[in-house]
User: What shape does this take?
Amino acid sequence: MIRTTLLVTWAIAGLLLAPPPPTGEEVTAQMVANICEQYRPIVDEMYEYFPIDPNIVLAVMAQESSCDPNDLSDDGHNTIGLMQVAAKPWNLAERYLYQPKWNIWQGMYILNSSINNEKENPDKDVWRALAAYNCGWTSLNAGECLYFGGPTYADRVLDFWYPYFAHENY
Assistant: This one.
């Protein structure tokens, strides 16, 4: 409940960062980016199967979980791990989603599917795919994404987080 309240408060303030750990230490975006970099080798490995710019994947992980593999949402969707994947729609055992490699695999699969969805995304628009990754195609197309979801989420990933990782070219 506290985390949800903080997220809503920070979203309204335009910060959209996951709340800091309970240690009291102020967490900066650069600190989150540094934590995320430990997962670059896994993302690079998955690139062979899902050719998405790894910098975008790391930016999604930063936005979704602050790169905490044990992050569990409390928003009712029960999304888990680095890329905040929901187990139920994908028929996955939750325990696998706490494992970084499985979570990244599934998150990249979902994002790659959104990018390459010929019906909903014929131009392979990454911004649009990111918006759908966050709130789903049905909600995105109906304009029913929450205030800080969908288009705002895509802007946040690409405009705020992506520059922290863009030092690697793909």
User: Anything to note?
Assistant: The CA atoms of residues 21 and 128 lie 31 Å apart. The chain has one domain: 28-165. The longest strand covers residues 79-80.
